[in-house]
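Section: Multi-chain targets

For targets with more than one molecule, the full set of components is provided together so that the structure can be written out for the assembly as a whole rather than chain by chain. Components appear in the order listed by the source. The example entry contains three components.
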Amino acid sequence: MTHFEMPLDATSWSVLLPYLVIGGGGLLVMLVDAFVRTLKKDHLSYLTLCVFLASIVVQIAVHPGEGPRLGGMLLAGDWSRFFNYLFAGIGIMTTIFATGIYDRDGRYRPEFYPLLLFTVLGMMVLAAANDLLAVFLGLETMSLATYILAGGVRGNVRSSEAGFKYLVLGGFSSAFLLMGMALLYGYAGDTNFDAIARVLATGGGATILVTAGSALMLMGFGFKVAMVPFHMWTPDVYDGAPAYVTGFMATAVKAAGFAILLRVALLLQPQLAWAWYPVLTVFAVLTMSLGNLVALVQNNIKRMLAWSSIAHAGYLLLGVVTLLSPAVGDPARQALARTVGESAASAVLFYLVGYSLMNLAAFGVVNVLSNRGGEDADDINRYAGLSRRRPVAAATLAVALLSLAGIPPFVGFMAKFYLFAAVVKAGLVPLAVIGVINSLVSVYYYLRVIVVMYMKDTEADSYDGVEWVSVATAGALAALVLYLGIRPDAFHAAAASVIRQLPF
Amino acid sequence: MTNNLPVGAVDVGVTGHFATVLVFVLVGFAFAGLALGVAKLLRPSAPNPNKLTTYECGELPRGSSWVRFNVRFYLIALFFIVFDVEIIFLFPWAVVFKQLYPVPGLGAVVFWEMVIFLSILSLGLAYVWVKGDLDWVKKLIERPGGTDQAAVPADEEVTAP
Amino acid sequence: METHANETLLRWIVLAPLLGAAVIGLLNRRLPRRVAGLLACATVGLSFALSVVVFLRMLGLDPEHRRLTDILASWVAYGNLRIDIGFAMDQLSAVMALVVTGVGFLIHVYSLGYMAHDDGFRRFFAYLNLFIFSMMTLVLGENLVMLFVGWEGVGLCSYLLISFWFDGEANAVAGKKAFVVNRIGDFGFLLGMFLIGVTLLPHLAPGEGAFSFAVMQHHAPLLAPVATAIGLLLFLGATGKSAQIPLYIWLPDAMAGPTPVSALIHAATMVTAGVYMIARMNFLYVLTPTAMAVVAAVGAATAIFAGTIALAQNDIKKVLAYSTVSQLGYMMLACGVGAFAMGIFHVMTHAFFKALLFLASGSVIHAMSHEQDMRVMGGLRRKLPVTWWTFLVGTLAIAGVFPLAGFFSKDEILWKTWSSGNTVLWVIGFLAAGLTAFYMMRLVSLTFFGTNRASEEVRHHIHESPATMTVPLVILAVLSIVGGWVGIPAFMGGGAHFEHWLEPVFAGGHAAGTHGAAHAVHDTTMEWILAGASVAWGVLGLLLGWIVYTRRLAVAEAGRRFAGGLPYRILENKYYVDEAYDGAFIRPGYRLSRTVLWKGIDAGLIDGLLVNGSALAVAVVASVLRLFQNGMVRFYAWSITVGLTVFVLYLSFSG
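Its structure, encoded as tokens over all components, is:
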């Protein structure tokens, strides 16, 4: 009954290479931190950057081909490469921001760097997973490291609280997720996605296992992407964690969560679209509406961005809903499955990238202003007059916020445009209308920060203090936000080509 | 991982496995209930305050049980768990290793995989050792760039359980 | 579709002025005045020089291949909609580019002198450069969307420059009026564009730019069913930009801007954008006789209507403004009868002589200490010799005196109108031509002849303008004389070079043959007769104007008092059109805004119910939600469980 395949031929090594680089790099950074006594403070961050760059170089150089590899555990090809680039990019930005703040708040945290690399490793595995075991492995590697990152400012009550809450609730949700996977395994008799798809296609077996299992799994992923009603940890954790970690969580963790959500949605679609579609529709609408509504009354910029990230998760969920919609429609609608699915999924990918850019830019600026005793610069009122004291930082934050609000010519607008266009193309006009109304509501709280920065005068307790590398990095992100807003099509085409690898 | 049974047979087989589990659970409950029930029927009942106190290895339980434990206990517990899990991994590996070792090319791979796994764990051990986390009282580490402020002050009282 | 040669110089033609605008606008006061002015002139000069270079390259190509393109980037690519950021130059664009950059350069130089003492000197040149950039985007845009970008850009610059002296309320109001009236036109333009997109997109292969002129022309038959609607909608846009009935009303008020602006934007270049656009879309218009007829009728009506108003204006720039409206009517008339080439020919000659007239009038105003009322001028002939002679040349040119530039273009338009069988329109055009000659001579007589009626102090300051102003005048005067010789028609033994040059662009129009040359009556005798008649008619108008307003002022006075002074008052008040619009649209609109929209909907519904109400609702909701967000981990875990339970229950009951 047992058969063995050669697990590690040459192709497998080339598939594994980026993961080995990041994982081995994490170990290396850890060892260097522990054993090299003559280490200067910035050296670990340089090493971390080198590891990220090496992973990018490796993936540019080595193309292991398309399709499941390593006994079906990981999906090699453009899809995973796309996300690996994204995670590496976010990792680089986060490293720069973190290093920038260590210079001034005196809280040097060398364990941050290996943890960041391990988190990214987990995300890479999660996004490329082609097997339930790989999903869980990636998810937990990512999560455990993120819990520590969130609670990383030891001695800071809010950070510890954030880490603790995230750990407890994350463990709670992981338990459900694991239960869901177990049920799905019970149904299909296999953990491999392709094998599960084959069983689902035949449609036999105890349906209750797969419906209940998928519900539990949806909850697990919904927790990671902050979907209402599994979102409640988000504001507390985003608020408590240091700004550079929050920026990382709001972008990379969310992207990884949506990567696997898309994969699982596509996997279960033939059997479960009828169940996921109505529920996800309700959740998506709830997510964006609640996110925007509560964001309106926040005075704390990190909390505001946390609620805004919930709202953006809602827009992204619209993409997933759109993806599922053809399967529940009449045959004419079903015939469109591929075009609708492609446009929705590519819109989601584009959105993830655009959202990551603008959110990182925003958190980068929040982070760089946080120089007083390790407290983050989170009080919106204390941004008064920033445009006069720190014009570049203020302009960067303004661009990021305008883009988050979906105002042209920034990438946020194009991202929403592609997304809502896909929604409309699938015939879900009411959902698109709800989405657009929500974006309109969101303009209020984003603009409020800009008003404070540009139209109020500096006061005694206004934030100040800028570290130029971080500002330049955030500024470069803002420039990219503008560039992709004006010239989105090439990138959108790339996202669309990534999608073609997936089965519809 | 890969199941060679025909698709139709999978369902029955898996359900069958779960039936075994179910029977096991039921028998477990029944056994415990039976034992406690029979004891209840047989034993004399003469409680006094000393008998009713919680048994704590001979110590007298005093005060509330909701006291804060020193975080160091958790660290030790975590290290223990990590190496515990390592051993748990080693057992199934050891069982399969015997079958796999003769297969040409595969034996070495399987062997080195476990070596890598163990070295990663050892690296972790070395890390916490060097960082001083294995010492009951952690020393502050001086760094050129600043102090690791996270260390627990040496004079903090250790709360015993 | 023919292959297009690439020409990367095109982008620099467009971008050079933008660069100038950016540098001057951003550095502003950090830049010395002299440097700012020179930079502005240099960038436009560079544009002109590059246009000439590209034009020369074009001359070396076969007529069919004279379409050079320069695609910078793909702007939008969604589904099979593709829009490029790119420029293209064919024969039509080449003419426009040369005129815009050439005349623009002269007016830049002129402005150095005219604006020398103005506080907003740098701002003025930044705007002016920005205008040239926008205008070149309009003219060289590879597709209709790029054209529209330029279209909106020139509208913006026009607004900024009309209100340039924004501390005067009238100037600000005039700018706003121009902006709002143009928006009405743009509304039509946009709808027309959408209609084109909706009609073409389903039939296009991916990667074909639906709005690219070449593609649209290629697929013109697909547009045929909706051509009339598109044509009329686009024409609505053109009536806004090119000041035709019913949207001409902003142009006379636009004279509030500095005079070089009036010359450049509101006479020579921007206002001809509508004509250019219609000529550019000729392949569409030839499909729709109805829209063509409307264009021709509106053009002719505008020509005579504005001409009569010009008779009774006393502000020197207002006369020229109405004259511009009238001349734009001619250009539209030409397009409407299918003589697109003649329309563009008139755009060119008009750019020369009207820029000249405006700049010369600017020189007069400059000399008269910013007095614009002709009733207090007079006798400036001797004091401003250069201005006087150049102004006279401009007047003769606009009156269509042989062999000045205006004669060839205007006469050709009238001939094409006649030969295409539109006798009524010809009569109207012919009458308007006489009117033009008459009111222009009235202007000249009141300004340059007789005795000076200004106050002693003003009279003391009268002086000829500096060389930076007079040299452009002389150059433009020369152009006003010789500019028409490139288009001497065949019956006079000329080569009609201009028409032949543009022929490939309008080939589709002639082939379709509903109008213009194909139907033309080739009657050389008639052509001679009509040409003679129009010259005689123009000279008669000039003479009458001269006699009435210099020798027989009593006749003028009698005209003013004719029929109780009523006709004169009507003309002086521009047929009360502004008042009619005011009564018909603005006041009711204002009242509607005030009572229903503001007090009812805005204050009541939106502020009261939606804003305050939703703020209240948000406050209530948020206070409820705050209870949920209580920071308790147990509660969070509980809510996760509840959410999950609901989901699972839903699945079990609906499955």
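Strands of chain B lie at 142-143, 146-147.
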